[in-house]
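For reproducibility, we list the full input for the pyridoxal-5'-phosphate complex.
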Amino acid sequence: MPETTSSQKKNADAVDWRKLKKDFPILDQQVHGVPLVYFDNAATTQKPRAVIDSMSSYYLEDNSNVHRGVHELSNRATSAYESARKRAAEFINAGDTRGIIFTRGTTESINLVAQAWGDANFKPGDRILLTEMEHHSNIVPWQLIAERTDAELIYVPVTGDDGRLDLTRLEELLSRNVKLFAFTHVSNTLGTINPAAELCAMARKHGVTTLVDAAQSAGHMPVDVAEIGCDFLAFSGHKVCGPTGIGVLYVKGEMLEKLPPWQGGGEMISSVDFFKTSWNEPPYKFEAGTPNIAGAVGLHAAMDYLDGIGRRNIFEHDRELGRYAWRRLSEIPGIRLLGPADERIGLVSFLLKDAHAHDVTTFADQRGFALRGGHHCNQPLMRKLGVASTVRSSFYFYNDTDEIDRLVDVLIQIQKFFAG
Amino acid sequence: MFGDLDDLYQDIILDYSRNPRNFRKIESPPARVVEGHNPLCGDELTLYLLMDGDVVRDVAFEGAGCAISKASASAMTTAVKGKTRSEALKVLENFHDMVTSGNAEVFEDDKLAAFSGVHKFPARVKCAMLGWRALESSLSSTDDESGAGVSVEKKTITTE
Ligand SMILES: Cc1ncc(COP(=O)(O)O)c(C=O)c1O
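The corresponding predicted structure, in tokenized form, follows.
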């Protein structure tokens, strides 16, 4: 991608962010009679026209099944699918495409590791180390496999409202017969960026396998598995400007051979006898059945699009928005802001003094703002922080400070309305 | 001034949420206790129901929630106190019809009519129904044979 490398050299100031917004037709609309402001990017990002077009032209011109036919269309579909895999390897600097498994998303990627690797490796008394800021999808799959294997879950604590991991405890926790340490790169509720490379290095020292949930980081900052040094990493296409229903599980080279197959079916076999089957090579061994080919094509276009802008630039842009929002929101009397004041992505989570999160989001929706109110699939963390729900506003490169100013005005109105 | 929002957050609803009625505990036993939970927002509500034979003698609730769920649970407690089990269930059915259809005919001149605006906000129907669903669950549970009337149950409100 020569285009990628040259434009990545641009810095964030040189990017025309307003022009990029025009690449997203969906953002140019009114809801409830007012212009839409999309601030729910942590749930899913919007898709640029390039992604939508890539998928429709795949269906209009190239659709076929992969790795099967020898006819022209099947060759095209296979090559589109495999070139998406190659692009995904570049996107996270995986080096080798063998370690890039396409899944339905982060959730399925984590379930694959829990069920295939976990089932083969956890013994009674083994511990699985998670953190208190995990999304339900990085908790529940481990609970299921822990129950089946008599392994036990333990957690790295979160310090409090400032939303950091208590790393003073990590060394001691890792030494408690831990087999696997699975943690989120970026918290979807607090916006915290965890020092992934440092955490993995510490785990490695204790011989602990690592899984990084990159759902909230992959589209928002450079993610480099070689630098992080993890064994597994998962992300979702729909949170990186790509379509739903496609995601990636990265598996480090030396883990690949040790990872047993997960689901059985076509594609994942090399030869099937009535009673015995030999497996295909990775990554095909882990991709049973006809894959989401159009999804992979769309994801490919999304990764090209993001790296065309440069994820370092996106990170800087969003971080500025996050800082701006934090500063402006702090002006609202009685507001409670959660998460660290710095080392965060462009996401703010807060509670207004007199208005419940659910009422805030309904009200804001009528003013055109798409916000999220709730527990953000983070119930254990919310309980720990003593809140049932928060309002979350999560930004992306197509958002701007003007939208944040308008949000603050609306929040002040809301506060007044409910305080009476 | 706020269009549809004024329909949703009528004065009576704001009043009931700021000053919830019957927002307290009832000793259990003899009261039945049900925990209602809205998985969408994490809201939790504990409902206490004291029956006198077939009649609702006292009903109260506690918990954190949005304005709609708090006001609706408040209004529910005042609406069903003194009613028989089947009368209370009938009010519940009518209330559910109203918050999903917007038709407030049955509740003419009744404060419950204030909740008809909820139907314009489908995502909020669950909030309005949380206390009522807990009541329904509590009414359908039976007191134990010793007459102690203890019934603690967790009910998750998942569908509407
Ligand atoms: C941190 C984190 N992990 C995992 C997930 C699950 O992603 P998906 O639903 O795409 O599988 C999410 C999505 O909300 C997330 O924010």
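Confidence is low (pLDDT under 50) at residues 1-8 of chain A. The longest strand of chain A covers residues 178-184. Both points were considered when choosing residues for closer inspection.
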